Amino acid sequence: MSEIGFGLVLDVADPDTLAPFWAEALHYSVVGGVGNYVMLRPEGRSGPRLLLQKVKEGRTGKNRMHLDIDAADIEAEVNRLEALGARRLENGQVEEHGHRWVVMADPEGNEFCVGES
Question: How do beta strands 99-105 and 111-116 pair?
Answer without folding.
Answer: antiparallel
